[in-house]
Specification:
211 residues, mainly alpha, 9 helices, 2 strands
Length: 211
């Protein structure tokens, strides 16, 4: 909640306190109980699963995500393979893979995109835990985040064209969940501005990241 207040108000929480709150956030990210891990995994499976996906494909992804969150050391190579099969289950033999995306038809999120974002988030949390992000970068990311978030919120109710994943853009229920969503969005903006997402994506393209 401290970070949510900082993101929405300039006068209550100083940037130094927000930086410490981000360190705490990074230290606790990924530390969940079994019920939360199962719910997180189900949500991701529901987002990516093609209607033709089998129970076994769904179950494999569910268990890989739960184990990755439990150990905080996901097997990205196995997860990428399992998610791709879940998302695009019609892949057979030598037929080239046409990878299905989720979200907006004009800007789909692929399995590779999703894992790049997850790997970048891990790298960002490592920097935040060590307080290696400058305060001026935190403030600039907040400025950009506010603009992007306002545009997203304004367009959110219209983001349900045919072909998008059901409930992909639906706002979570409850103040705590809404605050968590916005903090998560901010860290994504920060990772992008620091160049972490681009670095991870480039590494994946040349084979340095194992997926």
């Amino acid at each position: 909640m401290v970070l949510f207040v900082w993101l929405t108000n300039d006068t209550v929480v100083p940037v130094g306190q927000a930086r410490r709150a981000l360190r705490t956030y990074a230290q606790t990210t990924g530390k969940t109980n079994r019920a939360r891990r199962q719910e997180n995994a189900r949500r991701i499976v529901d987002q990516f699963a093609h209607p033709s996906a089998t129970y076994q494909q769904r179950r494999t992804v569910q268990l890989l995500i739960e184990e990755g969150e439990r150990t905080r050391k996901p097997d990205w190579e196995k997860l990428h393979s399992a998610l791709t099969a879940l998302c695009s289950p019609w892949r057979t033999g030598s037929v080239p893979l046409l990878e299905r995306g989720i979200g907006r038809p004009d800007m789909p999120l692929t399995v590779s995109d999703s894992i790049v974002i997850k790997v970048a988030a891990q790298q960002l949390t490592a920097r935040l835990r060590a307080e290696q992000v400058r305060e001026e970068d935190l403030l600039e990311a907040r400025r950009v985040h506010r603009i992007d978030w306002a545009q997203y919120e304004a367009a959110r109710s219209r983001q349900h064209p045919a072909g998008t994943t059901p409930r992909f853009f639906v706002a979570p229920e409850g103040m705590e969940a809404r605050a968590r969503e916005q903090v998560h969005a901010y860290t994504g903006t920060l990772a992008g501005m620091l160049g972490i997402i681009a670095q991870v994506a480039t590494g994946a393209q040349v084979g340095r990241v194992p997926f």
